[in-house]
Structure prediction request, 601 residues.
Amino acid sequence: MNLWTLKFALSIGSLFVSVGLILTDVCLFGRRECFLSPRRLSNNLVVSLERLSFLQTISSDHEENVLDLPKGLNHHVWEYNCVKTIETLCNFPVFPKAPDRRHIIFRTEIIAARNHGVDGHRLVGYVIPNSTGEYYFAVASNGFSEVWLSPIKSWRAAKQVAYIRPHDALSTVAWKRPGKAMFEIIEGESLSLYTNDSEKAKYKMFDDELPDAHYCAKYRKGYANKYMKPEIYPSLESTAVNKTLALCDYSPSYLVDPDNLLGFEQYYGVYKHISKTYSYPYPNIDGIVRSQAAHQVFQAENPLDEQEAWTVVETYMEAVENSYPERYELESIVRVEKKEDPINGGRYLLELVVRDLTNGGSYILAEYVYQPKGKNAALCYPKGLQWNRTADVYLILTAKNLGRWVHRFIKNVEEIVQETKDAHLHVVIFDFDSPDIDLEQAFKRSTLKNYHFISEPGSYSRTISLSRAVQSIKDPDAIIVTIDLHLDIGSRLINDIRKHCSKGKTVYAPQIVYLNCGGSSALPRGAWYHYSYGTVAMYKEDWGKFGGFSKGFDNKVTWGGEDWDIIDNAVKGGLEIERKRCPWVYHYYHTKAGMWKEARR
Prediction:
């Protein structure tokens, strides 16, 4: 079924009206006639109807003179988003602030071409009643529809007064005015724009001035997807358990010798030199599938035997008890990850919830341990893999003419900082002088404190922009992270990056979720993205040592190969690639039409 979304706002607009209202109507329905003509609107189509009385004047928080605005309604369109319910539309990151297209219409009716695909539509504007009395509002729909009204001019006070759920035949909104016997579609003389955004129509830009969608509030209170919820326990410092095990050398036999690269061909880093990760419990997300063929080719993550996981955890916790008697108690296993070296031994990342018996607090204990091969070889801490809880992490985004998704990224990072209170998280954006965003103003309006941006003209180049952005970061002890657009990032990714980046040792290339059209991070539908290496994290010093991109990619302005080239160079530099499922990053489906093209100011 094709989809629509509409939103109205009604406000007092003439001297003949004693009360102002805002009406918000959100509906989803097939790409047929949206609003019926008056002669086709019949009572048997009305599923829900509420009466409102206009008998008392109520103060308003909206000071704009509606009569000064042009006639009509703002008509905003989100193209090809495949949503089948209002809930999924509410979880589309650029709804309702950043439409694909903006128009003005002059009656509450939309007729669109058949077989055009799936769009979301929203109408925003004021309805101006011309007489005082009782008004009736009716809604009829072949899909999801809602009508919201407010006793004041502010949309924030709107409440649901009428609604329709799926499986009905048609969709329309109408009113019956005082002294009238029939319901009528609201015509242009009673409509006024919510905002005159005609100058913004040529850009797909994020617009904070647009009102939010009330219906979406209940779907944004929390994620059904447990992986997108914030971590509830603080991390235990490594110094709290550093006496548990002795340090030991760690140098896997499967690493490439930088001094002997004979036979190393392009993209062997991805195809041949990524060692499998085994994990318990195995990260599965409802609605997310895997490609069996790609899983085999790209050495994706595999389940770790439960008994092996418990054995290494119990061995470690016995060592903790011996070193810190009656101090820590195991509560649960968050996860155990293993990298197997068939010659030298197995390396594990243990992530456990432990209780500190001295204060009753629960903490995340996350440490690497190593089990060397050989008789009587003791569990030990591998040298160089003690992760830094407060390492500065720089998320690097590059873009051109995709301002609304850059805005979404900024807001996403704001959410992460609000959840984690992480003072060591930074944002770097390199933008090719896009006309659809003012980066300086976007950052000033945000709550972020750790950021900088570079804006220069030119055709989009991922390699040029990433290289320049990395150069702008001066701290060699910082972790740099290349980030793609169209992502939703959970707050737990940041410490996951810190755990899997060790200077001079490891590079983290998480395997993210690629959402199908209509999927979201809240309601995932998609697959594990085996081919993507667009998100890669490492220490700035390591990037400098292996030189970043190869010379053949230095000035590349087309897509393809640059992310795999980074993996090649990291592997040739003697670094180990950490590749595993990352249930905290979701890539939204999007059309690639027009991406990175030049846009006129």
